[in-house]
Amino acid sequence: MLQRRRTVHFHCHRADDILTAVRLAEEFGFELVLHHATEAYRIAETLARKKVPVSLTLLDSPGGKAETIGLLEETAAVLVRAGVPVAINTDDSVTESRFFLRTAAIALRGGLNEAQTLHALTLAPARMLHLEHRLGSLEKGKDADFVVLSGPPFSVYTQVLQTWIEGQKVFDRNRKRDWHYQVGGFALPEEGAEIPGPSAVPRPLPQVKAPPLPAGVALPQSSAPRQLAVLAGRLHIGDGTILSPGLVIIAEGRIQAVGSPSQVPIPQGASVLTAAEVTPGLIDPFCVAGLSGAWNTLADQDQDELSHPDQADLRVVDGFHPREPLVEFLQAQGITIIHVTPGRQNVLAGRSAIFRTDGATVESALIRADAAVLVNLGEIPKAAYKDKAPQTRMAVAALVRKAFAQAQHYQRLRTTHKDVPYQAKAEALLPALEGRVPVIFAAHRRDDIQTALRLAREFRLRPVIALASEAYRLLPEIKQAGAAVLLHPPMQRVGSNLETLHATTMTAARLAQDAIPFSIGTGFEGYVPKVRVLRHEAAMAVACGALEPNRALQAITLDAARLLELDKDYGSLHVGKVADLVLYDGDPFEHATHVTHTIMGGRIVYNRADYLKLPLERRILSAGPLPDAPCCLFGW
Fold it and tell me: What is the DSSP secondary structure assignment for residue 201, as one 8-state letter?
């Protein structure tokens, strides 16, 4: 390294740590490549002047550790404009390497053009590795390494058709075995039919532009205009219906009219917003945002109470933080309603709650408390407690059975005896035993899902299967049980543990084909990403999963509302419903598309134009709680 025969690749995030790496490189004369470099945008001119290259790690969403709180999607564009050589990495397995082109699309969304983004995946990293004489561009004499794509490299609908290395075809999408490495299920027997052969390459809808602002009308002058008209190049109603163009009239927080601009007049004096595409507010049916926070420290991690595996009496409503920065981030991504559950550690984890993402207090955000009981099955709950049960799947099931049996006994005693002592854990399960709320069984593997259905039959529960990585392997059983599915995020890390080894992006399409009610959730990661962008997860069920785009959008709007029993007021753009809308500058499923506005109850709660007025340093997540700050910082 000191003889500059080897490059030092430095792991760093904060601007001060980046400058320390640069200082050390200058002091000892070694060649430096910065890795991660989350806050490199703060010192872009310095890095350009010193000719220090950066290998960026890009994530769709924040959270993970305090030193990455400054994550921005604009970082790559800022660095390239300053003259800093930029490569993009996946930091596998933090970001799944199967979706490298989708990862790079974040840089496109942040301001790079397509050529610059492609350079960051090809020639720039080849130069950082001193392999540009062999790799990184299609030039005479270089290794015959190339990729055949079905469309533009950074469109979510584009598929890798073939991959060639040194003149040898190493991947062919038409081969079923190869295709499984693209969509998942690669560990299944090759001759098996649980996932059919390669699906057709998806086709995007034709591009549309935002309609011009009609003459004589004005943009909103406040976040809560008295009347608001939203004019869309393409309007997605949420039930599969599309109007192109479309118009929504909003007053008093609700939808007053929906139709084509030629049929629905804009009321005199109404403010108008225009967008290329408009959808209902997105609904995340299974997440932990508001319990799990962006800092990923003890101060903001309230999703798991690790004192006993039976925490049935816990209530999410008592731990939800409506101003958690990750909740505000979700709102800016068009997510207007979240169904928040406890975490994955405890077998009986507690009772969930449903919130809007615009509440200043728990009470103002709350739609429904105690919406469901969460039961966790599989590897995580059996490993949560090292010195006590449960240690096996048998013990996990036995604990669930015992808890519900005790609740049944308590229920009978209350009907036949007076002055029965109050039992909080049993009391918490009574609504589930009486069929008033569902029981969500979080399980990945087929055998764990079967255990969930068995327990539901035994106690006559209303089962909902969450995560459900292997749901496609027992569709008839799920349908016979009348269970709904809150599907795992399609971009979850396949094989991060053995439970997800058979996960596939095809599951949503299989559920739709079998008419099993389902939605797509963002789940929970213990590290990063702490939250996920719901529309990007649904997009992967389309791009790599054969789900129709309209059906995917319905899964995270109207279907999610139905599963959460909210469809009377939410989930679609119909007259009389709450005016929750999301406006986009392009196809909602494209990773390079921006949310331009989020409207909740007729109020504009996010405006990208306001975001872009902020200096880079103020575009990061709001501060939130201080992470494990020592008392001396407060003068105590």
Answer: P
Match 């053009």 to its residue by tokens: 113
Residue 405: how many other CB atoms lie within 10 Å: 13
CB 463 within 8 A of CB 488: no
Nearest Cα to Cα of residue 376 among 324, 314, 460, 283: 314
74 DSSP 8-state letter? T
Q: Which residue from 246, 226, 218 is spatially nearest to 581, judged by alpha carbons?
A: 246
Q: What is the pLDDT of residue 455?
A: 98
pLDDT for res 61: 84
Of the candidates 459, 455, 467, the one whose C-alpha atom is nearest the C-alpha of residue 432 is 459
Look up residue 473 and give its two tokens: 């392997």
| DSSP states along 14-56 | SHHHHHHHHHHHHHHT--EEEEE-TTGGGGHHHHHHHT--EEE
* This model's pTM is above 0.90: yes
Name the architecture of domain 287-316+346-561.
Answer: Alpha-Beta Barrel (3.20)
- Beta pairing class for 54-57 and 32-36: parallel
Q: What confidence tier does 634 reach under pLDDT thresholds 50, 70, 90?
A: very low
Query: Do the Cβ atoms of 486 and 524 come closer than 8 Å?
Result: no
Q: How far is Cα 248 from Cα 317, in angstroms, rounded to an integer?
A: 33
Place of tokens 């006590």: 388
Nearest to 522 by CA among 303, 314, 283, 347: 283
Q: How many helical (H) and strand (E) elements, i.e. helices and strands, does the chain have?
A: 19, 23
Report the distance separating Cα 205 and Cα 584, nearest Å.
14
Q: How many CB atoms lie within 10 A of CB 555?
A: 25
Does 8-137 match 287-316+346-561 in CATH topology? yes
Show me where the domains of the chain are located: 8-137, 287-316+346-561
User: Which tokens in the block code for residue 237?
Assistant: 């109603």
| Tokens at 29, concatenated | 């004369």
- What whole-number distance in Å separates Cα of residue 242 and Cα of residue 125? 43
Helix, strand or coil for residue 212? coil
* Residue 202: pLDDT band with limits 50, 70, 90: very high
- Tell me which H or E stretch contains 487: strand 484-487
Query: Residue 299: helix, strand or coil by DSSP?
Result: helix
Q: Indicate the fold that domain 8-137 takes in CATH.
A: TIM Barrel (3.20.20)
Q: What is the per-residue pLDDT across 115-141, written as a single tens digit (0 to 9) for each?
A: 999 999 999 999 999 999 999 999 999
Q: Are 279 and 236 in contact (CB under 8 A)?
A: yes
Residue 239 is given by DSSP the state S
DSSP one-letter code for 519:
E
334 sits in the region (left: phi over 0; alpha: psi -120 to 50; else beta) called left
Structure tokens at 604: 């504009």
What does the block give as tokens for 137? Answer: 């561009």
- The CA R_g of the chain, rounded to the nearest whole Å, is 26
Residue-level pLDDT at 626: 41
**Pairing state between β 8-12 and 32-36:** parallel
pLDDT tens-digit map of 253-297:
999 999 999 999 999 999 999 999 999 999 999 999 999 998 888
* pLDDT of res. 379: 95
How far is residue 604's CA from residue 599's CA, in Å, rounded to a whole number?
4
Structure tokens at 478: 């799920």
